[in-house]
Amino acid sequence: MAEKTFFDLYSEQKSKPTPAQEFVSEVARITRRTETTVRMWLSGQQTPDALAQSIIADHFGVNADSLFPKR
User: Fold this and answer.
1) Checking CA distances to 37, which of 2, 14, 52, 54 falls within 20 to 30 Å?
2) What is the pLDDT of residues 16-32, one digit of tens each?
3) CA distances, 63 to each of 26, 38, 54, 57 (Å)
4) Which residues does 47 contact at the CB level (< 8 Å), separation at least 6?
5) Contact, 13 vs 31, CB < 8 A?
6) 22-31: Cβ within 8 A, 24+ apart
């Protein structure tokens, strides 16, 4: 059995990516954009082009028109 401290166990869990980080990484990978770009899409600072929107929609099985509604 491995010998680890309670803090070691906590640190291992804390170093894992969050579901939100995994989502950003996945979208960056499928659209071939940077994670920074994906975060800008999430914050509304930028909107992806039509090709990226269609890739995201196809990947997640949603309507591309509903992904980035006009503000």
Assistant:
1) 14
2) 999 999 999 999 999 99
3) 18, 18, 8, 6
4) 41, 68
5) no
6) 27/56, 30/55, 30/56, 30/59, 31/55, 31/56
HSE toward the beta carbon, residue 61, CA cutoff 13 A: 0
Closest to 42 (Cα-Cα) out of 21, 17, 15, 65:
21
Residues 6+ apart with CB under 8 A from 57: 63, 64, 67
pLDDT in tens, 26-68: 999 999 999 999 999 999 999 999 999 999 999 999 999 999 9
